[in-house]
Design goal:
single chain, 3-stranded mixed sheet, 14 helices, 9 strands, 13% strand
């Protein structure tokens, strides 16, 4: 099958590279061309435009930054969907709000395109090592068609039912991720103020049953005060914003997630937007 990958940032470039390792017939497109050239050297074909990228594709994967960017590239008479072959599949790996995924599915349907929402759990190392977990929403036949490619890019796929359910579950994962990082940081900072050794706290707290397992990986960032980006802080803020919009749609208050959103917004305003989201520790430590 002919596969196209749209969006070659931190995650997408590594996901596309893993597809190439299995000999996939892959076309890539990115609005800045530098990322495409790296993949061309590995066997990909670079497209000159998004419509050129998708016109012959059987499956199009997208991994973009925001719902607005997805809409800009895919919707409308000049968008990617209008250029795709009828019955081709669009699998959107972007973290978006569930209502947007359902809107994307309806937009795709107008052009005879099948749609699946396939956001991922994992950051740069998991994308690099094909250890991502896909949260998939869509009909069984569509998910069965894309399954071999998801398996190439990840370690596991969780089928969650109808369109939008993948996006729904990813939203829950990310609001827990954001809040868990804040809780861990507050505990470390308070522990230091009470006279406990910082290294002891960073070595011990992540291994407790009450700690989120991912804090084991973030503890070293905190220790070194080095927040080289794996998952940008600005996208965590974006995901919390989308959660707040979704909660409003369902008339469900999100007390702590909304507080987390404002903390990430404040950190972003202090110039931390392009650092890893674990840099919320630096913000809390200095404020």
């Amino acid at each position: 099958m002919k596969i196209t990958f749209i969006g070659l940032g931190i995650m997408g470039s590594r996901m596309a590279a893993n597809l190439l390792k299995t000999g996939t017939d892959l076309t890539v497109y990115n609005r800045s061309s530098e990322a495409m050239q790296t993949l061309v050297a590995q066997g990909a074909t670079a497209a000159t435009s998004i419509t050129d990228a998708v016109k012959d594709a059987d499956i199009v994967f997208s991994m973009l930054s925001t719902p607005e960017v997805v809409q800009d590239l895919f919707f409308g008479p000049e968008g990617a969907l209008a250029a795709m072959q009828p019955e081709a599949i669009w699998a959107d790996c972007t973290t978006v709000n569930p209502s947007f995924s359902r809107e994307a599915a309806l937009e795709a349907q107008q052009y005879g395109i099948r749609f699946a929402d396939t956001p991922v759990a994992g950051t740069k190392p998991q994308a690099q090592n094909a250890e991502l977990v896909f949260f998939a929403g869509g009909d069984k036949a569509t998910l069965a068609t894309i399954a071999p490619y998801l398996e190439t890019m990840g370690a596991k796929t969780i089928a969650l039912g109808s369109t939008g359910q993948g996006a729904s579950f990813k939203m829950l994962v990310n609001i827990m991720l954001a809040q868990s990082m804040i809780i861990f940081s507050e505990a470390v900072i308070l522990g230091e103020k009470m006279g406990l050794d910082k290294d002891f706290l960073l070595d011990t707290l992540p291994n407790l049953a009450v700690a989120a397992p991912f804090t084991k990986f973030k503890a070293e960032m905190v220790r070194q005060d080095n927040y080289e980006v794996q998952f940008p802080l600005e996208w965590m803020q974006k995901d919390l914003h989308l959660a707040a919009l979704t909660a409003y749609e369902h008339q469900q208050p999100l007390y702590l997630a909304n507080l987390a959103k404002e903390l990430f917004a404040a950190a972003s305003k202090q110039g931390m937007s392009r650092l890893d989201f674990a840099a919320i520790h630096r913000y809390l430590e200095t404020n």
